[in-house]
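Two records follow; treat each independently.
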Amino acid sequence: MDFSQLNTAEQAHMTKIIEKKQMQDFLRLYSGLVERCFNSCCNDFTSKALSSKEDQCVLNCSDKFLKHSERVGQRFAELNAGTLRYEHSVR
């Protein structure tokens, strides 16, 4: 985003808004990960500790989720770069 047309106070305000939005997005992503992996993996409530099977399931679940998120981010960046190249070639 180009904030060069904004004064210093407006730039600082926009930066705060963006940082807040990024934190909200991160917390939403993290909460979704916790909920998904907990619901999929944690089934035995007779002990306060995870069983080795549950522990491995949580590790696999979180690893898969993070790899998926990383791939989606890469793909989004690729598409965004392609869109920018197209817009510049049309001009």
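The next record belongs to a different protein.
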Amino acid sequence: MVISQDNWLKCCKTGGKRKPCHQKQKYELGCHVCSTKTGPLRIHTVCMRGGSKKYCVLRLDMGNFSWGLECCTHKTRITDVIYSASNNELVHTKILVKNCIVLTGSTPYHYAVPLSKKGVTLTPEGEEMLNKKQSKKVQKKYDGRKKNATISSLLEEQFQQGKILVCIAPRPGQCGRADSYILEGEELEVYLRKIKAQKGK
């Protein structure tokens, strides 16, 4: 069956079906759901009307994740899908959609105060990175951050576990990317409650 998004194929406000006035035209066709899953990158290029292209992602395992508190962005691997507001089945099948909550590693992120996994000491390379000599301008910026370097206990727990909850912002099946942002503050508390309630069912 061909998918279509046109208005005359939908029901009336009263709930009745509209009579078809003509057959489906080429410009009225929709596209099938690509169901982007976690795995090695696999993209299908779809030619659209007017010569434009859409990048239909079938498998995706990496994304650019931004941390608003520190104003930094890093490329990190997606490990698991934790919560999806639209359908719980998307969590079981590991399908990536807009606004779903996924789990990523905390390794690339550095904070004004060193954050590492619980019971894990930093490697010599990690210590060298934290203590390397900076220019006066950069050192001044870091010292200014350290004065007001406060991080919520919930986010600190996630850093100690080595796993962070992030929210996917774009539509991976349409644009071919999974750029996201780290959950923090009230938003993190809300989603943790929802995840706990979902697991309790």
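Discussion point: DSSP finds six helices and eight strands in the chain. How would you locate this feature using only the token line?
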